[in-house]
Design brief:
Chain B: It holds the Pfam family ANTAR. Chain B: This is AmiR/NasT family two-component response regulator. Chain B: GO terms for molecular function: RNA binding. Chain A: This is Branched-chain amino acid transport system substrate-binding protein. The complex is a heterodimer. By secondary structure, chain A is an alpha/beta fold. Chain A folds into two domains: about 110 residues, Rossmann fold; about 180 residues, Rossmann fold (3-Layer(aba) Sandwich), CATH 3.40.50.2300. Helix content of chain A is about 45%, strand content about 20%. Chain A has twelve helices and 13 strands. By secondary structure, chain B is α/β, with parallel strands linked by helices. Chain B has six helices and five strands; from the N terminus they run βαββαβαβααα. Chain B has a five-stranded parallel β-sheet, with helices on both faces. In chain B, helix 4 packs across helix 5 and helix 4 runs parallel beside helix 6. In chain B, about 30% of the residues are buried. The chains are: A alpha/beta, B alpha/beta. The interface between A and B is medium-sized, with 14 and 14 residues.
Chain lengths: ~325, ~220
C-alpha cells in the first residue's frame, strides 16, 4: 500500500501493471481515482466490479468458476465440500458454486473457512474422508493449500481411496507457479484457468520458450504470467492507438482492442473493459504442468456481474452427462 | 418469499433523472454493464408518464423537484437518490419521498451495484409489508362480523365457540374464501330461503342463509 502510494506520488506515472489480491486492488483504487491513473490488473478475480480506473486482463467469474461448476456437474459430481481461506475470493466463488449445485440438484456437504496462513487442516480433511463428497472445491491459498493437499491425499490413501479419482480437489487458482511448491502430491488436481503452459498455439510456443529461458526457476509459465504479459501488450497497443499515454485517451482507446495472446485471440470488451478469454480445465501433473482436459469451443465474453449467466446452464450441464451414459 | 434476495437486474429499465453530467455517463455505463436498459429524463420536466415501464429510478436530489419523487412513488418503484449537498433541506426531501438507497455525487462505478442491490431488495420488502398491512387491516375490519357470526352459529346449533369457529374456517378453506367473507355470508338476512345452492344434497340446510352463492357450512347437528 505504501509502495503504491509512493509510486503514484510521481505525477509522471499514469499506468500501473499489478496487484494480485482483490484487497490490494480495492485499497489502491481511491488513489488511482484521485490521480487519474489506470491499473492494468492481471489476475483472475471474483468479479462484481467495473472500475473506470482498471483494465482487467485476467478471468472474470463467468470465465473460471462457472465453467468449473459446469465441468464438475457434467462429470456427475454434484456433492461438493468447500474449503477456503477466509476472504472475499473464497466467499464469492463458494456462493456461486453453492447456487450452481443447488440449481442442478446437487448439494454442499460441508463448507469451512480458515484464516489465511493456517496450516492445521487435518480435522477438515478427516471430515471430508468421512463424508466422501464427489469433489472438494478449494479457495485456499499458499501454505494452507499445500498443507491441505498433503493431508487429504495422505488420509485418502490410509482409507484405501484414490483421492485424485474418488475425491478430486478442484480450484480456480492452482497454477504452474504453485505446483513445484506442493511436492509429492502435486499431481491429479483440477484447475479452471484461461491459460496453462501446455496450451498449443504458436504464440504460446514463443511465449513459453522466452519464459523458460528467463524465469523457469519460478515454475512453468502460469495464468498470472500470461495475464501480465497480455496487460503490458494491451497497454502498448492502447497508447499506440490513442497517440498519447494520457489516462482518458488510453482508457477509451483500449476498448475493443484485439490481441493474439498465448491462450488464443482475445478482445477487450468495449463496455466493461474486461477481456474475452478462453476457459479451460486442466489436471495437474507431477512435472509442474497441466493436462488440458476440457476447453471452451468459443472464446467467452466477460460477464463480471454474472448478469448474463443463466440458471439453466447448470441444469443443462448436469443433464448432458446423464444423456451421455449408455 | 421472505428470504428471496434479488441479485440479478438483467433487462430492468432504469430511469436516470438528472441533467447531462460526466457522472451521469459513468452511472449509465455501470448500469449497462449490470444488464440494465437505461433511459434519461431531465429533472425539471419529468411527468408521471415517464415512469411507465421503469423498474428503478435514479434521481438527482439537488436538481429534482418534489413532483418527480411523487411520480416515482406512485409507480411503486425503488428510488435511489444521487446526493450532492448533504443539507437537511435536500435530505429531508429524500426522507419524505421514502428514498430506498443513495449514491454520493459525483457518481463513480463503485457503489452503484450496492445502491441498486439494496434499493431493489428494500423495495421488495416494503411491497410485502404493504401487502401484509392491507391483509391485517381487512382482518381487523372483519373481526366484529366474525364475532357476530360465531355467536349466530352457537345459538343456531347449540355449539360452543370453538366448534363454530372451526366450521367457519373449514368452509372458508373449502370455498377458498376468507373467513371474513364466510362470516359475512352467515349474517346475511335470509332473503331467499329456497335458493337450491344453499341447500345440501341431503336436504338439510346450509348455515349461510344469505344469497351468496356456493356458501354452505354443513349443519351436522340439525
Amino acid at each position: 500500500m505504501k509502495g503504491a502510494r509512493d509510486l503514484l506520488a510521481d505525477p509522471a506515472i499514469v499506468h500501473v501493471v499489478g496487484c494480485y489480491t482483490s484487497s490490494s486492488r480495492k485499497e489502491i483504487l481511491p488513489i488511482l481515482e484521485k490521480r487519474d491513473a489506470l491499473l492494468w490488473y492481471p489476475s483472475h478475480y471474483e468479479g462484481f466490479e467495473t472500475s473506470e480506473n482498471v483494465v482487467y486482463s485476467g478471468a472474470a467469474p463467468n470465465q473460471h468458476i462457472v465453467p468449473l461448476a459446469k465441468y464438475l456437474l457434467g462429470q456427475s459430481r454434484r456433492r461438493g465440500w468447500l474449503v477456503g481461506s477466509n476472504y472475499v475470493w473464497a466467499w464469492e466463488n463458494n456462493r456461486i458454486l453453492r447456487e450452481a449445485l443447488g440449481i442442478a440438484g446437487g448439494s454442499v456437504m460441508g463448507e469451512r473457512y480458515v484464516p489465511v496462513g493456517e496450516t492445521d487442516l487435518r480435522d477438515i480433511a478427516r471430515q471430508i474422508i468421512l463424508d466422501r463428497p464427489d469433489f472438494v472445491f478449494t479457495t485456499l491459498i499458499g501454505s494452507s493449500l499445500f498443507a491441505f493437499l498433503d493431508d487429504l491425499r495422505r488420509l485418502a490413501e490410509a482409507a484405501g481411496l484414490d483421492q485424485a479419482v474418488d475425491i478430486p480437489i478442484a480450484s480456480c487458482s492452482l497454477s504452474e507457479a504453485e505446483l513445484p511448491l506442493i511436492g509429492r502430491v502435486a499431481a491429479g488436481h483440477l484447475s479452471s484457468s484461461v491459460y496453462f503452459s501446455t496450451v498449443e498455439t504458436p504464440e504460446n510456443r514463443r511465449f513459453t520458450e522466452a519464459w523458460n529461458a528467463r524465469c523457469l526457476g519460478l515454475g512453468h509459465a502460469s495464468a498470472d504470467a500470461e495475464a501480465t504479459y497480455v496487460a503490458v501488450h494491451l497497454l502498448a497497443r492502447a497508447i499506440e492507438r490513442a497517440g498519447s499515454d494520457g489516462f482518458e485517451a488510453v482508457r477509451e482507446a483500449v476498448r475493443g482492442i484485439h490481441f493474439t495472446a498465448p491462450q488464443g485471440e482475445i478482445e477487450v470488451d468495449a463496455m466493461n473493459v474486461h477481456c474475452t478469454l478462453h476457459p479451460r480445465i486442466g489436471v495437474s501433473r507431477d512435472d509442474g504442468t497441466f493436462d488440458i482436459v476440457w476447453e471452451s469451443g468459443e472464446p467467452v465474453s466477460p460477464d463480471p456481474y454474472l448478469t448474463w449467466t443463466q440458471d439453466s446452464e447448470f441444469r443443462i450441464a448436469a443433464a448432458t452427462h446423464l444423456k451421455a451414459v449408455p | 418469499m421472505k428470504n428471496v434476495v434479488l441479485k440479478n437486474f438483467r433487462n430492468w429499465t432504469a430511469l436516470i433523472v438528472q441533467d447531462d453530467t460526466p457522472g451521469r455517463d459513468s452511472l449509465a455505463r455501470t448500469l449497462v454493464n449490470l444488464g440494465l436498459v437505461v433511459r434519461f429524463a431531465l429533472p425539471r420536466v419529468t411527468e408521471a408518464g415517464e415512469f411507465t415501464g421503469v423498474d428503478i429510478a435514479f434521481i438527482d436530489l439537488d436538481e429534482a423537484e418534489g413532483a418527480v419523487f411523487d411520480a416515482a412513488a406512485a409507480a411503486g418503484i425503488p428510488m435511489i437518490a444521487l446526493v450532492g449537498s448533504e443539507t437537511p433541506s435536500r435530505l429531508g426531501k429524500a426522507v419524505r419521498a421514502r428514498i430506498t438507497s443513495h449514491i454520493q455525487k459525483p457518481v463513480r462505478s463503485s457503489g452503484v451495484f450496492t445502491a441498486l442491490f439494496l434499493a431493489a431488495n428494500e423495495n421488495m420488502r416494503r411491497a410485502e409489508i404493504t401487502k401484509e398491512e392491507a391483509t391485517l387491516k381487512r382482518r381487523l375490519a372483519g373481526r366484529r362480523t366474525l364475532v357476530r357470526a360465531i355467536l349466530t352459529l352457537m345459538t343456531r346449533w347449540g355449539i360452543d365457540d370453538q366448534e363454530a369457529y372451526g366450521r367457519l374456517r373449514r368452509d372458508a378453506m373449502e370455498k377458498r374464501l376468507t373467513i371474513e367473507d364466510v362470516a359475512r355470508a352467515v349474517l346475511e338476512p335470509a332473503e331467499d330461503e329456497a335458493d337450491p345452492i344453499d341447500r345440501l344434497p341431503d336436504g338439510t340446510g346450509g348455515i349461510t342463509k344469505g344469497p351468496v352463492r356456493g356458501l354452505s357450512i354443513r349443519g351436522d347437528q340439525e
